[in-house]
């Protein structure tokens, strides 16, 4: 359920764009580089997105 809050297009992946949208709605203003760093920390298969298994 929490994953779907980030996965706006419902494709099972969270992109930097989707993560940025959520972060900005929470009052944050991360750079593209910061968003990519956040995703890279949890990107198990190194495809540049966070996937829901």
TrEMBL record:
Gene Ontology MF annotations: calcium ion binding
Keyword annotations of the record: Calcium, Repeat
SMART domains linked: EFh
Cross-referenced SUPFAM superfamilies: EF-hand (SSF47473)
Domain named EF-hand: residues: 1-29, 30-53
Pfam families to which the protein is assigned, alphabetical: EF-hand_7 (PF13499)
GO cellular component: myosin II complex
PROSITE patterns: EF_HAND_1, EF_HAND_2
PANTHER family: CALMODULIN LIKE 3 (PTHR23048:SF0), MYOSIN LIGHT CHAIN 1, 3 (PTHR23048)
Protein name: Calmodulin
